[in-house]
């Protein structure tokens, strides 16, 4: 064997045994090593490009809502419900904290609007609304979630609630989340727009997407964030460039900014990986072939939310990375996979662009039945100045929309929101009352004025009309 070939083979062996330590230092942006899981997968092939602790169990937090969405979309596909189906906010839904829409008991929401609120604002109450609406109860919906996980091959996953709020039995892994993300993309391409809506608007309030890669990382098009103290900051992210779409999973980051940065680095590696020495690295196979690790999920509560740290219990946080030591790696070893050798990836923050114009304007959501049954738009389009027509009222509405309301109803998808208020209801909108009052007053004046004219004319006509001659006297009845 030629000397050069022998040397290359020896180098490959060394690289295969030390790749984890070398690349981990780059991906962690020089921070001290800490418990976290990373995974990068190709959507089309399922090929694993890179990973760390990818098969260790983990608390999912709000990335649970990806499975909530999967089960809901499956119910749509099976014709159990449709996008116009109306679900009602229950006592259970009202009680959900902390990230929520905050609707009152009995409020009605369509499946279409609930899904948008769930995925953009990570609304815990909407997760319960969908669960109870689709399956009748949280327990029955959790059973459907677990059945779907089993069918997809998510062998490390179990669910007990639809929103990811803390529960010891709510467990997943980076491997399983990548499998789920692939299934959503491949099985429900018609709903792909849901993953990358930059913001939603309810009345006059706008909610930005908790996934800060949207409109800040080139090609970012999904999917979902998550955070509880025990899990750290989680993110399942997707991005597309050309004909290549990737899934990056980050679990256990120290802050929302850190998870965004790490996901951007992972994605950038996948898009820019090109090296003549890539053949030196062993093939990592596909995501479903990764071997699960039998262990307990790491609990990062002290690390993330200890007495010296103040992280809000919300998965839309931009706190600075938490300083301090990290727990030892579970099992005493790290499993970092790399499919090719390339130049060091720039820091995640350098890959993000702030101040970009939103790819689409805020997508309007509202409460109550669908405004135009059967005409819900599944792909939001940019607004035009001429888009001021009021959507048709549902059957049973007594009054047509007032012109003043029509002038304020220009929306990205042609649906008219309630005019103001946090919960989108007309009763809760202080701005709506003066407008209604002025409209009523104006209408009263108009009615009075228009009715007065005919009365005056009739009076004048009666006064000027000649009186008929008196009738001739008649004989009294006998």
Please explain how this structure is put together.
With 478 residues, the protein is α+β, with helices and mostly antiparallel strands. The chain is built from 11 helices and 11 strands. It has helices at residues 3-27, 65-77, 91-94, 111-121, 124-135, 138-152, 174-187, 256-272, 301-305, 403-407, 432-464; strands spanning 37-42, 48-52, 86-88, 108-110, 199-202, 205-208, 220-228, 232-241, 244-253, 336-338, 363-365. The relative contact order is 0.15. 32% of the residues lie in helices and 13% in strands. A hairpin with a 2-residue loop joins strand 8 (232-241) and strand 9 (244-253). Helix 2 (65-77) packs parallel to helix 5.
Please outline the helices and strands.
Elements: H1 3-27, E1 37-42, E2 48-52, H2 65-77, E3 86-88, H3 91-94, E4 108-110, H4 111-121, H5 124-135, H6 138-152, H7 174-187, E5 199-202, E6 205-208, E7 220-228, E8 232-241, E9 244-253, H8 256-272, H9 301-305, E10 336-338, E11 363-365, H10 403-407, H11 432-464
Parallel strand pairs: 5-11
Antiparallel strand pairs: 1-2, 1-9, 2-10, 3-4, 5-6, 7-8, 8-9
Helix pairs in contact: 2-5, 2-6, 4-5, 5-6
Produce a short descriptive summary.
This protein is 32% helix and 13% strand. Strands 7-8-9-1-2-10 form a six-stranded antiparallel β-sheet, with helices on both faces. It has a three-stranded mixed β-sheet with strand order 6-5-11, covered by helices on one side.
SSE series:
HEEHEHEHHHHEEEEEHHEEHH
Q: What's the mean pLDDT score?
A: 73
What portion of residues belong to β-strands? 5-15%
Helix content: 25-40%
**Which sequence of strands runs across the widest sheet?**
7-8-9-1-2-10
Rg, please?
30 Å
Biggest sheet layout:
6 strands, antiparallel
Would you identify the regions where 5 or more consecutive residues have pLDDT less than 50? 6-33, 313-344, 377-454, 456-464, 472-478
Number of strands: 11
The secondary-structure class comes to: alpha+beta
Number of helices: 11
Oligomer type: single chain
| Span of the ends, CA to CA | 147 Å
Shape: globular
């Amino acid at each position: 064997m030629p000397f050069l070939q022998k040397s290359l083979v020896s180098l490959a062996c060394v690289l295969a045994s030390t790749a984890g330590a070398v690349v981990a230092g780059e991906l962690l942006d020089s921070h001290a090593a800490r418990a976290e899981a990373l995974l990068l997968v190709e959507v089309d092939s399922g090929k694993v490009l890179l990973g760390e602790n990818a098969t260790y169990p983990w608390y999912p937090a709000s990335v649970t809502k990806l499975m909530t969405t999967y089960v809901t979309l499956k119910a749509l596909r099976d014709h159990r419900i449709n996008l116009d189906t109306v679900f009602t906010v229950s006592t259970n839904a009202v009680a959900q904290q902390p990230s929520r829409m905050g609707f009152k008991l009995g409020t009605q929401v369509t499946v279409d609007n609930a899904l948008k609120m769930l995925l953009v604002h990570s609304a815990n109450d909407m997760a319960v609304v969908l669960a109870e609406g689709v399956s009748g109860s949280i327990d029955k919906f959790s059973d459907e979630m677990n059945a779907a996980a089993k069918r997809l091959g998510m062998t490390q996953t179990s669910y007990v609630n639809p929103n990811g709020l803390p529960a010891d039995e709510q467990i997943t892994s980076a491997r399983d989340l990548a499998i789920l993300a692939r299934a959503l993309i491949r099985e429900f391409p018609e709903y792909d727009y849901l993953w990358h809506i930059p913001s939603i608007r309810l009345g006059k309030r706008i909610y930005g997407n908790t996934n800060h890669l949207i409109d800040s990382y080139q090609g970012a098009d999904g999917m979902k964030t998550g955070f509880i103290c025990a899990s750290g900051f989680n993110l399942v992210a997707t991005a597309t460039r050309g004909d290549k779409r990737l899934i990056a999973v980050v679990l256990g980051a120290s802050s929302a900014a850190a998870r965004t940065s790490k996901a951007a680095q992972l994605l950038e590696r996948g898009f820019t990986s090109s090296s003549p020495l890539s053949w030196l690295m062993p093939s990592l196979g596909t995501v479903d072939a990764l071997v699960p690790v039998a262990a307990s999920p790491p609990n990062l509560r002290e690390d993330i939310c200890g007495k010296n740290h103040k992280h809000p219990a919300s998965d839309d946080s931009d706190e600075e990375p938490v300083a301090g030591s990290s727990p030892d790696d579970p099992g005493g070893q790290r499993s970092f996979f790399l499919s090719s050798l390339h130049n060091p990836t720039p820091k995640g923050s350098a890959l993000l662009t702030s101040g970009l114009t939103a790819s689409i304007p805020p997508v309007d959501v509202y409460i109550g039945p669908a405004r135009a049954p059967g005409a819900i738009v599944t792909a939001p389009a940019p607004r035009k100045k001429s888009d001021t027509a009021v959507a048709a009222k549902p059957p049973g509405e007594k009054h047509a929309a007032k012109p003043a309301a029509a002038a304020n109803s220009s929306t990205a998808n042609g649906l008219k929101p309630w005019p103001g208020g946090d919960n989108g209801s007309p009763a809760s909108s202080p701005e709506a009352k003066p407008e209604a009052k002025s409209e009523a007053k104006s209408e009263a004046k108009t009615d009075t004025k228009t009715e007065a004219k005919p009365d005056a004319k009739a009076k004048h006509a009666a006064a000027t009309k000649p009186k008929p001659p008196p009738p001739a006297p008649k004989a009294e009845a006998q």
